[in-house]
């Protein structure tokens, strides 16, 4: 019989928790994951997204019809999200004049966590806080971060889940292709 030391068992447990940390949609398990009925999937109409932005203004995805929109689900506790947000900001700055809209949806448990994180990373695109978890439930992002590319007609053109090698380059190319005249 193989005996493990308590330290080894603890180390393995912590490693597995760290590896899975951003595979959850929120810090609690109340938000469904992919495969849930009504989840936002490629080719389906984008769910409603109307919420107050962190700056107090209103954001409504329906008002952005006719524009290419990136909807990014993130949280301050998610390391891949922390790496992705500055890259999305650069993409937004590059293509905003051509009609690209980016909106971030914070799935942090506490609004203050998102606000504190954003004080160190100012973003020019709107950020909404999913206080009641309704956006997470409607959109059901499968991993953190998840970017939904919403076409001008309001359908979901692509879903970029988690952090994968080459995925950001693929997103950039997809945005440039869809915005090309």
Description:
There is one protein chain. The chain is α/β, with parallel strands linked by helices and 181 residues long. The chain has one domain: Glutaredoxin. 33% of the residues lie in helices and 19% in strands. It has helices spanning 6-20, 79-95, 111-119, 134-139, 167-179; strands at residues 50-52, 58-60, 68-74, 100-106, 127-129, 146-150, 156-161. The strands form two sheets. The chain has a five-stranded mixed sheet with strand order 5-4-3-6-7, with helices on one face. It has a two-stranded antiparallel sheet with strand order 1-2. Helix 2 links the parallel strand 3 and strand 4 (100-106). Helix 2 (79-95) packs parallel to helix 5 (167-179). It is globular.
Strand content: 15-25%
Figure out the total of helices.
5
Please give the alpha-carbon distance between the first and last residues: 67 Å
Major sheet strand order? 5-4-3-6-7
The CATH topology is Glutaredoxin
Q: Assign the structural class, choosing from mainly alpha, mainly beta, alpha/beta, alpha+beta, or little secondary structure.
A: alpha/beta
The CATH H-level superfamily is Glutaredoxin
Could you state the order of secondary-structure elements as H and E?
HEEEHEHEHEEH
Based on CA atoms alone, the radius of gyration comes out at: 17 Å
Query: From the 3D coordinates, which CATH architecture would you assign?
Result: 3-Layer(aba) Sandwich
Shape: globular
Low-confidence stretches: 1-21, 24-37
| Biggest sheet features | 5 strands, mixed
Q: Any idea how many domains?
A: 1
* CATH first level: Alpha Beta
The helix fraction, in percent, is: 25-40%
Please tell me the overall pLDDT.
84
Q: Count all strands and give the number.
A: 7
């Amino acid at each position: 019989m193989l005996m493990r030391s308590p330290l080894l068992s603890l180390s393995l447990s912590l490693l597995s928790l760290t590896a899975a940390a951003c595979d959850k949609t929120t810090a609690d398990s109340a938000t469904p994951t992919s495969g849930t009925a009504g989840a936002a999937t490629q080719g389906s109409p984008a769910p409603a997204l109307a919420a107050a932005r962190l700056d107090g203004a209103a954001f409504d995805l329906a008002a952005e019809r006719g524009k290419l929109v990136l909807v990014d689900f993130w949280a301050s506790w998610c390391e891949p999200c922390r790496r992705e947000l500055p890259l999305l900001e650069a993409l937004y700055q590059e293509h905003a004049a051509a009609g690209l809209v980016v909106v971030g949806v914070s799935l942090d448990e506490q609004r203050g966590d998102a606000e504190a994180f954003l004080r160190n990373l100012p973003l020019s695109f709107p950020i909404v806080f999913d206080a009641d978890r309704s956006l997470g439930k409607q959109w059901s992002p499968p991993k953190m971060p998840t970017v939904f590319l919403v076409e001008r007609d309001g359908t979901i053109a692509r879903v970029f889940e988690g952090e994968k090698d080459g995925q950001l380059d693929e997103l950039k190319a997809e945005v440039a292709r869809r915005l090309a005249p």
